[in-house]
Amino acid sequence: MRIAITNWTPRMAGGVERYLAGLVPRLRERGAEIAFLFENDEAEGSRARVAGKGVEWHGPLKHRGEVATFLGSWKPELIYAHGFRRATLDREAAGAKTVWFLHQYTGACVDGAKTHRWPVIEPCSRPFGPGCLVQYFPRRCGGLNPLTLWRLYREQRYRQETLRRARVLLTHSAHLEREYSRYGLGVPIRRVPFPAGPEAKVQGRGDRDY
Prior knowledge:
Order of helices and strands: EHEEHEHEEEHHEHE
Strand order of the largest sheet: 3-2-1-4-5-8-9
Distance between the termini: 29 Å
């Protein structure tokens, strides 16, 4: 089976990359061919790549259409998306073969923190939408530049529309499962235990929270 994995970096930058570092070798052991598409390969310190031999690396991605061109020629049976920093690259990877893992509030918050910072710091429980434009400044959700607010809002709307094109959305978080179930994306949302691997049981709504 051919699997294309997308992530902004191939380096061990954080928890997402540690998860992929554990997953990729197990997929290879099961006979999968892996291509890893990445956006930025700037090594910080001595950070290694998430996988060694047997992976086809494609990047750094610099130009519009590059993701679509590679996927069209390599022809993966599955695209396992973890998110690029540029929303347009994610759109090129989204489609009927795409399994999208939700690690954060992609398309669900203007600045991605889902937090009110005034008058007290507290989590935001509002669904993402036009009302966020009204709340953003009074609740100090982010900075004070209206142009930045509008740019970020449009980008997150774009990202939410990208999620609608996926085959299925995965998450390790019951909270994120509930969050995205509010948006009527028309895409199945499934929860898997963390750390997730080939043997992980898929959870549905109503099962145990992880």
